[in-house]
């Protein structure tokens, strides 16, 4: 007997901008991902003012799924996937974001892709916005700092819900909407909300405002989606990294709890339809001057999501200090501590399979809605053996241990889990570094950090292993 229910969704996850390429094909406009250069392990990606000649923009060509989807979908079918998570590049549908009419060539592209996936019995799982805002909306409206962008997003969502209502059932509104919360670095604010912060601005106020407009846009989209097709399952998507206290000192324990409340306040807004009490109080105590109307609060309550999609890669540890307020925890106040009990990836990400069970239980207790693990995986350098094969046992180990914890959460803890789509099932451009060599895939793509390679696809050892896992519905790990 297998722990996972019949119809459990076994898939793989990617995002349009990290794998499609074809950045100007079929009338596509420039997105925020298109104006970011590659960085390296230490340096975050550079945000340029538009596309500048001579720069290295890794998302422009990515791994060229745009021209190879037929071949790639066949590989996903061979792997045994019954679902596939990707995003719709907003700029294929509305190249500038504020046009009256959508771009038919862009709509047609996703018709073809979804038809191809469905012909293999692979259900598309679609994120509406995965770090892919049209760059024009940044230049003209300041990204999500403008209430006008709600209308543009809602129009985009309405057009694609309507067009694909018979092809796509599972949707998510914004990828890792909470990345911007508390991190307060340039990259996270730009990728999530298209925000470019001026030196004299209160970053926190700008972030709260932008995140609020996104939450309202998400709630409106949920309502419209359900009207278009009542069978739609529309989720939020948050980045989950449990935060543990460094010691049993109650101050550390409370600090960890407050950091969790901070990091997941947008899940409260999207799942419960309201801001948590501590944050409403925080807004009152600070003169942020936020534009949060009573009508907005009604919209949030009426547009609650059906499920929580989340990414899980690693956990974190925090400690309290005497002089800091136990208030909303922003970057600089998070005091991250190294977890001496865990191993780390080459990029310093803690490997914590039990943290996934913890996360599933935390979400399940707090929100009582179905959960969907829509990203999980091990970014690593892969070595090609002399015979051309990649024996990625480290990736198999990582996935095996995480799936095992996921099994315990379902079987022992009674968590309602819809599915599991490991991140970057096919090697793609890393969001954090813009490079290729941080690989997650069970399918290798011949392309290096310099953009060189044939783009040929090949199966790693993890491909055969994951195929076996899916065939046994998670029994044979
Ligand atoms: C998540 C994003 C993805 C993805 C993944 C891995 O934050 O939703 O887009 O890339 O993390 O991160 P990275 O590519 O930086 O290793």
Automatic annotation (TrEMBL):
<dbReference type="GO" id="GO:0016052">
    <property type="term" value="P:carbohydrate catabolic process"/>
</dbReference>
<dbReference type="InterPro" id="IPR017853">
    <property type="entry name" value="GH"/>
</dbReference>
<dbReference type="GO" id="GO:0005829">
    <property type="term" value="C:cytosol"/>
</dbReference>
<dbReference type="GO" id="GO:0008422">
    <property type="term" value="F:beta-glucosidase activity"/>
</dbReference>
<dbReference type="InterPro" id="IPR033132">
    <property type="entry name" value="GH_1_N_CS"/>
</dbReference>
<keyword id="KW-0326">Glycosidase</keyword>
<comment type="similarity">
    <text>Belongs to the glycosyl hydrolase 1 family.</text>
</comment>
<dbReference type="Pfam" id="PF00232">
    <property type="entry name" value="Glyco_hydro_1"/>
</dbReference>
<feature type="active site" description="Nucleophile">
    <location>
        <position position="375"/>
    </location>
</feature>
<dbReference type="InterPro" id="IPR018120">
    <property type="entry name" value="Glyco_hydro_1_AS"/>
</dbReference>
<keyword id="KW-0378">Hydrolase</keyword>
<protein>
    <submittedName>
        <fullName>6-phospho-beta-glucosidase</fullName>
    </submittedName>
</protein>
<dbReference type="InterPro" id="IPR001360">
    <property type="entry name" value="Glyco_hydro_1"/>
</dbReference>
């Amino acid at each position: 007997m297998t722990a996972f229910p019949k119809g459990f969704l076994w898939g793989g996850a990617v995002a349009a901008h990290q794998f499609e390429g074809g950045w100007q094909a079929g009338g596509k406009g420039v997105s925020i991902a298109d104006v970011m250069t590659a960085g390296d392990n230490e340096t975050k990606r550079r945000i340029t003012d538009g596309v500048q000649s001579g720069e290295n923009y890794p998302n422009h060509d990515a791994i060229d799924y745009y021209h190879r989807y037929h071949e790639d979908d066949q590989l996903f079918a061979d792997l045994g996937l019954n679902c596939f998570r990707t995003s719709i590049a907003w700029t294929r549908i509305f190249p500038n974001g504020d046009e009256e009419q959508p771009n038919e060539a862009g709509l047609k592209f996703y018709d073809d892709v979804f038809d191809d996936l469905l012909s293999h019995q692979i259900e598309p799982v679609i994120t509406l916005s995965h770090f892919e805002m049209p760059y024009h909306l940044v230049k003209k409206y300041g990204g999500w700092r403008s209430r006008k962008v709600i209308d543009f997003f809602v129009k985009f969502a309405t057009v694609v819900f309507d067009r694909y209502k018979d092809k796509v059932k599972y949707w998510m509104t914004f990828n890792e909407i909470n990345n911007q919360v508390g991190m307060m670095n340039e990259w996270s604010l730009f990728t999530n909300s298209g925000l470019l912060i001026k030196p004299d601005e209160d970053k926190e106020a700008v972030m709260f405002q932008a995140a609020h407009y996104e939450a309202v846009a998400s709630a409106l989209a949920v309502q419209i989606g359900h009207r278009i097709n009542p069978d739609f399952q529309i989720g939020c998507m948050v980045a989950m990294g449990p935060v543990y206290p460094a010691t049993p000192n109650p101050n550390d324990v409370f600090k960890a709890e407050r950091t969790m409340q901070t990091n997941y306040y947008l899940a409260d807004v999207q799942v419960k339809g309201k801001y948590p009490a501590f944050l409403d109080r925080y807004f009152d105590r600070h003169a942020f001057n936020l534009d949060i109307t009573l009508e907005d609060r009604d919209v949030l309550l009426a547009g609650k999501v059906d499920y929580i999609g989340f990414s899980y890669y690693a956990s974190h540890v925090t400690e309290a200090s005497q002089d800091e307020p136990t208030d909303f925890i922003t970057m600089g106040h998070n005091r991250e501590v190294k977890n001496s009990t865990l191993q780390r990836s080459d990029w310093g990400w803690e490997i914590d399979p039990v943290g996934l069970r913890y996360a599933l239980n935390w979400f399940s207790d707090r929100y009582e809605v179905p959960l969907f693990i829509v990203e999980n995986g091990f970014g690593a350098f892969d070595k090609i053996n002399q015979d051309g094969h990649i024996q990625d046992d480290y990736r198999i180990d990582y996935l095996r241990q995480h799936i095992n914890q996921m099994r315990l959460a379902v079987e022992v803890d009674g968590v309602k889990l819809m599915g599991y789509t490991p991140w970057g099932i096919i090697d793609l451009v890393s969001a954090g570094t813009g490079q290729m060599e941080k690989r997650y895939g069970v399918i290798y793509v011949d392309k290096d950090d310099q953009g060189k390679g044939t783009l040929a696809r090949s199966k790693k050892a993890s491909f055969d292993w994951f195929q076996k896992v899916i065939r046994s519905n998670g029994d044979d790990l």
